[in-house]
Amino acid sequence: MSAKKASSPASRHEWLRAIKRLVVKVGSGVLSQGGIGLHRPTLRELAQALGGLRTRGVEVILVSSGAILAGMEALELTERPKDLPLKQAAAAVGQSHLMRAYEEAFQPRGLRVAQILLTREDLRHRGRYLNARNTLFTLLGLGVVPIVNENDTVAVQEIQFGDNDTLSALVANLVDADLLVILTDIEGLYTADPHRHPDARLIPLVRPQDAVDAFCEEETGSAASVGGMSTKISAARRATAAGIATVVAGGRQPGSLERILAGEEVGTFFIPSGSRMRSRKRWLAFASVPRGEIMVDAGARQALVTGGKSLLPSGVCGTRRPFRAGDVVSLVDPEGRVFARGLTNYGCEEVERIQGLRSDEITAALGQKPYDEVIHRDNLVILATA
Question: What is the reported pTM?
C-alpha cells in the first residue's frame, strides 16, 4: 500500500465523515460501569452502535478488555487480582464468559463475532504480524466483527502489552484503520484530574505538535480499571504518528460512539500527522522490537532524516548488542539518541568490518557484496522523536 497524503479538514466533522474502517477500544471501567462484573446493557448498547456502523458499510474491529473482569465475576472476587498466576486464571475463566456475552449482544443485530487473542510477540514477529493482519481482513470481508483482546492467560511481563490502550493503537496500525476511538470512563483529556480539580478543563483538540500532560492515576480507582490516561495519550500518539485520527472519550453514556462519528465535540480529538505510513514502516515503527543498535555519524543522520537516503557503510560508527542480517535494529546518533529503526542487510560482525567504508569497498572486506546499503530506505523508518 502506498503512503497517502492526508488533507487538512477545517473541522472534526470533515475528518470523520469519510471513515471506512474503525477500531473501537472499550475498557473495563466502561464494561463494568464502575462495578464488579460485566454490565450487559452496556454491551448491548455497544453492539447496537457497531451494528449500525456495519449497516452503513463501515468495517469495525472491537478491542475489548473484560476477560479478567468477567473471571472476577465468575470466581466471586471482590478486587482485581494482583499476582500474575491469579490474573491468568481469572482471564482463563472469564474469556469464554466475555465472548458469550458479546455473542448474545450482537446476535439480535444479525452479526457474528470472532475472538482474536494476541500477545506482543505476535506483533513483533513479522510473519505472525502478517498472519494476524490477513486473518482480520478475512473476517471483515466475511462481515464478522473481530473482538481483539490481550491473551492474558499466557502473557508474562516480557510479552504483555500491559493495557489494551496500547493494543488498540497497534491493531489500528495493523488493519490500516481510518479512526481509533478509545472509550473510557473519563470524558477525555483534561488539564488536570477532574476528580480532584473541579476547575479542570476538557481539552477538545490535540495537534501533532502539541505537548500535553495528563494525570496518570487509575481511571476510576475501582477494582476493574487498568490503564490510566497516560496510556491513552501514548496510544493516541502511536496512532496519529501513523496518520490515524484518534478520539479519547467517555463511553458510559448511551450514544457516545454515534455522537463521535457524527462529528460532535465529544471527548478529545487527536489530529493525525500529515501522511499515512506504509504497512511495513508502521510495523517497524510501532510493533517491532530491535535486536541491536547501529551507531551513525552526524552526516549519516542528516542524510537519513532530511534526505530520505539509505544507510551506507560510510556513515556507520559501530554496533551494540548482537544481531543478524534481517533483524530489526535501532539507529543511534552521536548524542546517543535513537532516531530511526530498520531491517539490516548485514549482521553485527559484518557491519563492524565494513563500517566507514565506501560501498565499492565491501567486497574487499567481506569477500562478497550482496548489498550496497546496510539498511535500504524502503526498510527504514524515522521515529517521531527524531
Answer: 0.80
Q: Going by C-beta distance under 8 Å and a sequence separation of 6 or more, which residues neighbour residue 315?
A: 296, 297, 299, 300, 301, 303
Q: What is the distance between the alpha carbons of residues 143 and 91, in angstroms, rounded to a whole number?
A: 27
pLDDT in tens, 18-43: 889 999 999 888 998 877 889 999 99
CB-CB contact of 242 with 276 (8 Å): yes
**Cα gap 129→89, rounded to integer Å:** 26
Could you tell me whether strands 338-343 and 328-332 are parallel, antiparallel, or unpaired per DSSP bridges?
Answer: antiparallel
Instruction: Using alpha carbons only, give the angle 137, 145, 34 rounded to the nearest 5 degrees.
Output: 130
* CATH class of the domain at 12-281: alpha beta
The three-class DSSP label of residue 380 is strand
CA atoms within 13 A on the CB side of 73: 20
Q: Which three cell numbers stand for residue 148?
A: 481483539
What is the pLDDT, as a whole number, of residue 162? 59
Q: How is residue 197 annotated by DSSP? A: -
Looking at the DSSP bridge assignments, the partners of residue 340 are 331, 382
Q: Is the pLDDT of residue 207 over 50?
A: yes
CA–CA dist 120, 271 (Å, integer): 26
CATH superfamily, with its number, for domain 290-382: PUA domain (2.30.130.10)
Evaluated on CA atoms 183, 189, 195, 198, the torsion sign reads: negative
Torsion of CA 38, 43, 45, 51, to 10 degrees: 180
Q: Is the pLDDT of residue 219 over 50?
A: no
- Sheet strands (E) in the chain: 21-26, 59-64, 113-118, 145-150, 179-184, 205-206, 245-250, 268-270, 292-296, 316-320, 328-332, 338-343, 380-382
Q: What are phi and psi of 375, to 5 degrees?
A: -135, 125
- The ranges assigned to domains in the chain are 12-281, 290-382
What sign results for the dihedral spanned by CA atoms 180, 184, 190, 193?
negative
